[in-house]
Every structure is written in structure tokens, then in C-alpha cells.
Amino acid sequence: MNSNAVTRDIVGSMLENLDQPASLGEGGDVVAASGEKGRSLWQDAWSRLLKNKMATAGMIYLIIVAVMAVLAPWIAPFSYEETDLALGAVPPDTLHLFGTDDLGRDLFSRILYGGRVSLMVGILSTFVSVTIGVVYGAISGYAGGRVDNVMMRIVEILYALPFTFFVIILMVLVGRNIYVLFLALGAISWLTMARIVRGQVVSLRRSDFVEAAEATGVTRARIILRHIIPNTLGPVIVFVTLTIPQVMLEEAFLSFLGLGVQEPMSSWGTLISSGVSAMETYPWMLVFPCLTLVSTLFALNFLGDGLRDALDPKASKD
Amino acid sequence: MGALLEVKDLRTHFFTRDGVVKAVDGVSFAIERFETLGIVGESGSGKSVTMQSILGLIPTPPGKVIGGSALWEGRLDLVAAPRREMRRILGSEISMIFQDPMTSLNPFLTVGQQLTEVVTAHRKVTRAEARDIAIERLEEVGIPDPAQRLSQYPHQFSGGMRQRVMIAMALMNRPKLLIADEPTTALDVTVQAQILELLKQLQKSYGMALILITHDLGVVAGVTDNVMVMYAGRPVEHGTVREVFHSTAHPYTDGLLRSAPSLAQSRSGDLFSIPGLPPDTSRLPPGCAFAPRCPHVNEQCRMNVEIPVRKFSATHRSVCYQEHLP
Amino acid sequence: MILYILKRLLAMIPVLWIIATLTFVLMKAAPGGPFDSERQIPAEILKNIEEQYHLNDPLLVQYGRFLGQLARFDLGPSFRYAGRSVNDIIAETFPVSATLGILALIYALLLGVAAGLFAASKPNSVRDYSAMGISMLGICMPSFVIGPLLVLVFASTLKWLPVAGWDSWKDMILPSLTLGTSYAAYISRLTRAGLMDIIRQDYIRTAKAKGLSGFAIMVRHTMRGGLLPVVSFMGPAVAAVVTGSLVVETIFNIPGLGRFFVQSALNRDYTLVMGTVLFLAVLVLLCNLVTDVIYAFLDPRVRYE
């Protein structure tokens, strides 16, 4: 299921509405309303976000999951790698909240540690993709003309490539190195980001304050750095929250095929993978990792949706 | 038989996150058969919302008609009518054309499809008959090669031509009342005059009543018999064009008249404009809504909730304490 | 239009060349060959084999031969399945994958469009929120979660459907549901968003002012434009289904192209991997082209030179 094409497209369409920067939109009423209350656009967006119950719930849930994953070495009740073959697989009880796997390892602890890997993959890969996407998109949009044309043509061509296959080949060839995984996943998900940033930049470039900066002789690099990138922040934030779940899915996908993280390290994807092979006899080994992954992705998507609505009031559904 | 359409105390409010916007707040007027009425006001004065409320075209939510009535031919209250009844009348007895012909035509359907569906929705006719009517109407609104144009899409027409198509569409069933909502605002100045002339001529040849909504008093002067001036969701002055233009009673109308640029003024270099901004209809002052911008304001304007209606003739009335303005 | 299609077809050639070169380089740069994994093969035999597959020629010669074969649509012999060409293997396995993919897409389209219409017919109501909540869940449930859970419930526990295999129509149900569900969820969101966008348009108000019925407005005026995003999604969806089949075919042990690809990648079966990637790239590019052409037919404003 989770091909890049779909992930790109989901994020893309969710962000379509953000083509126009909210701060410059012709929604005079919006600007006026926030001006009256003397609040910045960001404060306004924040209060709108807090009004969205699902998004707030998602945010709180994510914070809890992230904190627990980070603190795993201190709060995990058992080791994630020590096996206890004598114990074997036991169903959930008060000692082992989520039960143990067939090697006698505590599943709750393994999920906590797995969260570290899954979240790290999500965040680092997204960071890679945002970096590439923002730089590429900003240059393309700012340069304009022929350079812009060529650069966007390249993006279009890249859209058509079955990237997941390349990542699979790559993982087979370099031997499941987790850092290569970060890079590879990041390198395949920047296309939509580049498009969004380019769209923003093109519309910003024609705006008064950038023209003013140009007229006063500020260098191009400086204009991109000081004026354009800060103004594309809103869409980028939304993109980030929606890309993290896509990348996490991709990682889980690869781990499921046996091409991601390796034992004894675990990610949620590898836990699901081993859960599948044991589901007939020990169903809890499948159910708990699935619940964790799906609920986290759920929370991330709701937060992303909420952020999009909060940052662009005009695009909010009615 | 009474008036063609009689509107009484119509109220339409929009319930938004930032409060209740009283877009239309007590509008009453009547229009007779063959009459032409101009409704004038700044944007946000509620003139479009008034007509859309009567026809049930208000987006609900957030909008809602919360009171009043609109009696059609003395027999049917359009505001309370069941949807099915309403649909029978829309497009056949009453038609409406909108401001922006660029967005008011469906880009995915041919002009022919959009014209003929108005006929087939209301009458039992064959496709060929509907097509003949469409060709006839296109000819009447001055579109050359109508038969060929039928199979084209809206984007293949220019702005003025599209507005002609909209007019043809409104006339498909020979309505008794045509409502034109800012029909020329989105068009080039040269085209504007043509469209207005066309409307005027069609009103006569079809013998229908016409309500022309506009922000431009000049447009009204050339086309309609009567004028209603609206401010902040209420009518402030109503009369024949002659009365309203020559014995202006309301200070707002006076302001509108004076802010229309004329040759004499532009030569002297001074352009008049009404001081202040149109009001936020979710936070109106207690008294007269125009009071904060009115040059003739006094205490009672600000305090009294009900401003008396002054009648100057059978047709001319104004909602203001002022006597005739100099 | 025909000129446009020809242009697009020609433009595919450089793209495919890039893909071919990329896979070739990746494969050659890989440490370890296809024949040095499990057991020790005597040096002479290995040499023979390598000679047979021309693995000892200079890289450029190999590259040239590879491209030459491609130009004749010959993907070469498989390294692992002795005596069988990559073309044979694709010809044998692709119909299976295609059947699965088409079934999944039909299911996704029917359910997705229906759910989107259902939600958009009464925006911001309970039905809207519940439909969109469920669809969000569908997007968050990857196939490798849905698949095993479906098996657990319908095959292992209820015993209504087989656990795995690809012999009768019963075998097709669970894999198609697994593969299609997330697209159904996504299509429902696209449909809803598309329809909501159109409902806001001025021309819908015009249609209302004409006295048309709600049904006529929905079918004639709203759906045409509202479903365009779904149409343009079909190109990427085909690519996505192809990728998704990797996992679904593995879960359900289906002898399709996806499972062969995973195995051949793990086995370092160079030619099979390269052949599969190129074949799928062509498929995806063609589907994108078909999507664009259909789109142009549906939207009169879009015309290709």
C-alpha cells in the first residue's frame, strides 16, 4: 500500500490549499480580525489549533508517546534484548502489560524501545526531506525562468519513478544500515515539499517586501534566507507533521519485508512483522504493535490536519 | 391583484464564529408588474443577501432567514415555501443573474447544455424544442452564430459574451421577474453600457419586472423607475429615481450622490467621499447605523432605537430625522 | 492530441534510460555477486557460470550489451531461475499481480467515491465526521496491519476464507481488501474535498437559481468537476498499488510479480531485479499518460497541443 506516490499525493493534496501564503492572502477580514485583537498570526493559529479537539488530543498523545520512547531505558520494566526461553510467550498480565514474545522478551519494553527507532526514523528522514525540498524549491522558485522550468521538469520526472524499489535495492546492497535508511527515505519524499516551497516562493517573490529588499540591494542568498524561508514556514510545518507518518509507514513497510531494522533492535515495523508470523498462536504479539503504530499515525494525521486548518483559516472546511 | 412581489420585514443573519452578522435586518419593499427597481448600497449593505434570501439561495449554515415574508403574486410566501414549490418558481417565473459571469457558468458543461436544462427542468419539451428556444434567446441577447455557439464551453466566450449567455439563460422561460445582481461590475466599462442597454430593452420587450442590484447610482439612473437605497442591512431611502436624485432625503444617499465623480468635480480636483468605513454589521450602534458617519447627526439619532420613517410622497420615504436636504 | 501522446511517449525514453543506468550501477556496485552466497562453488564452475552470463567482461561492455538487449525488449536470462528468461517470469507473474491490483482498485473506487459522496452530501454532520474519521483510520492502517488482522478474523478464527494461496475466487477476496482499503480511504477524502470545493462555486448557485433539483445539481453540475481529483489520482494509484503488492503478495503467498521482486532482490538476481524495475516504470509512466489523457477529455479547459 504505502507507496511514495500515494504518500506524496496525500501530502500534496492536503497542502494544495496552502499555495497562497496566509499572511499575504486577500482575506482582508482575517487580517483585520487578528489585527483588532492585537495578536500575531502565529498566536492566532495556535489558539485555533487548541480549539480543534482532535488535533489537541493528537498532540497530547504524541507528546506522551515521544516522552515514553525517549525515557525507555529508565522506564522500561524489562530489557528489550534479553531472552528468557524458559518463560516463552505469555499473554498479557499485570507483570507483562502487553505479554511477552516467543523468546520471553517483554513486549511492552520492546515497543517502548521500538518507538525510539520508529520515531527517530520518522523525524530524521523528514528532516532530510525538508532540507532537500526547501533548498530545491526555494532555488527553483526564486531563480524563475528557464532554471525553474528545468528544475520542475526534473521533479515531474522523478514523481514517475518507483522509488520504493530503489530503496529496497539499496537496502539489500548496503546491508540494512539504519543511517542509509534515514537518508534513503528522506531522499525519496522531498518532491512534494519542493513543489510547495516553490509555489510559495513564486508568489512571495512578487510581493512588495521582497521587491523592496531587492531594490535596496540585498543579496539573493540573503533574501532567500531572511525573507522567503521564514514566510514559507507555515506550509513546511504542516508538511512535516504529515510526512513523519508517511516515512514511519515506509520504514515499517521495509522492516516488514525484512529490509529495515535488524534484531535485536526493533522498530514497530519489525515487531509487527514478527507478530504476523506468530499471530495464530500468540495474537497479542500482533495486536499491540499494530495498535501502537496505528494510533500514533492517527494522532500525527489529526495534528497535521488541525495545523493546516489553523495556519490557513481560508482553507478550513465548511 | 396585489404587487408582484411584496417583501415585509425580512431578516437574514449569519451565525459566524465572531458573532452574529445581521446582513439583512428588517427590509420591506414591493415591486409591481413591469416595474423596474434599483437596489443601491455599498458592498456589505445587504442588497445581494436580500434577494438571495428571498430566493432561498443563502448558504445555510452559516446564514439563516430568521424572519419576515416575501409574498409572490399575493399567493405564495417564498420565504416559507417548501423547496419543491420554490424550485418550480426559480428559473421559470423568477430568474436571477449574478455578478461574475466568469464563475457563474459551469466550465464543464457546454453553453447549450446549460441553457436547455433550464427549459427541460420546468416544461415538457423535446430536446430539439429546447435547443430552438436556446438559439432564439442567444440571438435576442446579441450573440452571433448562436447555433454553433451552443456546443462551445464557457471559457471560449469573452466576459461580456458570457454575461449575455447568463441573461439568455435567465430568459429561457420568459420570467415575470428578473433579478440582476451587479450584472456589470465584473465587466469592462465599454461592455457595461451595452449590457445595461440590453437589459433595459429586454425588460420592455418581455414585459417583465426587473430588480437591478448595484453599488452605482449612475447605473440606476439610466435603467430603473424606482430606487431603494440600503445601508447596513436596512433600507434608508426609497422613491422614484427623480425623487431620490432631485429631492434627496437621506444623508447617506446624499453622500453616495456626491461621491460619484463627475466631470465638474474632477476638473476642480476635489473628490468627495463619505468619511469613515461601512459598518461591521455584527457590531452596530444602538441608534441609526449611519450616525457615526453622518454630517447631520444629533443626539436623538444616536439614542433612539427606532428611527421614524418620513413620507414625502406616496412613493418617496426616508428613514431619518432630517427634513429634505438642501 | 495524438501529437501530444507521441511526444509523451518519446519523453519516456530518456527517463527509462536513467532508470536503467541507475539500477545497473547500483547492481554492479554491490558487494557480493549472485553466486557467492550459500554453498561454496568450485572456482572453475563459478568461472564457467560467470562466463556464460558474461560477468567477466569489462563493465562498459556489459552496460552496452544490457542497453542493446533493452532496445529489443529483451530483459535477459534470470540468474537464479536457471533456463528461464526475465521476460518469461514477468509474463507469468504479472497477470496475477494485475488481477489483484485491478480488483483492489475497483473496490477502492466504488467504496471511496460512495463514502465521499455520503460525507459531502451533508457536510459537518455526524455522518460526515464519522465517514471521514473511518477513512483517516483507513489511511493509517498499512496493508501489513490490515492483512494479518483480516486473516486472523476471517481465515483463522471464522474460517470463512482461505489463509493464503491463489487458486479460486475465494483466495482473491482478502488480498484485494487488504490492498485496496487504504486507497478507498484516500479516495473518499479526495472525493469529499473535490465535491466540497465545487459546491462552493458560483455556478452551483446559478444551478440552484435555475430551479434544478438537488439530485440534478449533484449529478450534472457537481460530480463532473468534483471527481476530477480522483481521476488524476488514478495514475499515482496504479504505481502505489504496484508497490503495495510487494507486501500483500508476501502476506498471502501469491505468486505475483511483487513477491518475485522481493525474493530476487534478496537473492541478488540482478537481471530479474533490473527487468522488474524497468517493466514497472514503463507501466507507471503509461498509466500516468493515460490518466492525463482522460483528464483532458473530462475537463474542457485542458487542451494539449
SSE topology sketch:
The complex is a heterotrimer of chains A (318), B (326) and C (305).
Chain A: H1 4-15, H2 28-36, H3 41-51, H4 53-70, H5 72-75, H6 107-143, H7 145-159, H8 163-174, H9 178-187, H10 191-205, H11 208-215, H12 220-231, H13 233-256, H14 268-278, H15 284-311
Helix pairs in contact in A: 1-10, 1-13, 3-15, 4-6, 4-15, 6-7, 6-9, 6-10, 6-13, 6-14, 8-9, 11-12, 13-14, 13-15, 14-15
Chain B: E1 5-16, E2 19-31, E3 36-40, H1 47-54, E4 63-72, E5 76-77, H2 83-89, E6 94-97, H3 101-104, H4 111-122, H5 127-140, H6 146-149, H7 159-171, E7 177-181, H8 189-206, E8 209-214, H9 217-223, E9 226-231, E10 234-240, H10 241-246, H11 251-259, H12 263-268, H13 299-303, E11 309-311, E12 317-319
Parallel strand pairs in B: 3-8, 3-9, 6-7, 7-8
Antiparallel strand pairs in B: 1-2, 1-4, 4-5, 9-10, 10-12, 11-12
Helix pairs in contact in B: 4-5, 4-7, 5-7, 7-8
Chain C: H1 2-29, H2 43-52, H3 59-71, H4 86-120, H5 126-140, H6 143-157, H7 169-199, H8 202-209, H9 214-226, H10 228-251, H11 257-266, H12 270-298
Structural overview:
- The complex is a heterotrimer of chains A (318), B (326) and C (305).
- With 318 residues, chain A is mainly α.
- Chain A contains 15 helices and no strands.
- Helices cover 71% and strands 0% of the residues of chain A.
- In chain A, helix 4 crosses helix 6, helix 8 (163-174) runs antiparallel to helix 9 and helix 13 (233-256) runs parallel beside helix 14 (268-278).
- Residues 1-38 and 314-318 of chain A have low confidence and may be disordered.
- Helix content of chain C is 76%, strand content 0%.
- Chain C has helices at 2-29, 43-52, 59-71, 86-120, 126-140, 143-157, 169-199, 202-209, 214-226, 228-251, 257-266, 270-298.
- In chain C, helix 4 (86-120) runs parallel beside helix 12 (270-298) and helix 10 packs antiparallel against helix 12 (270-298).
- Chain C is flat, with a radius of gyration of 24 Å.
- Chains in contact: A-C, B-C.
- Chains A and C meet through helix 1, helix 8, helix 13, helix 14 and helix 15 of A and helix 1, helix 5, helix 6, helix 7 and helix 10 of C.
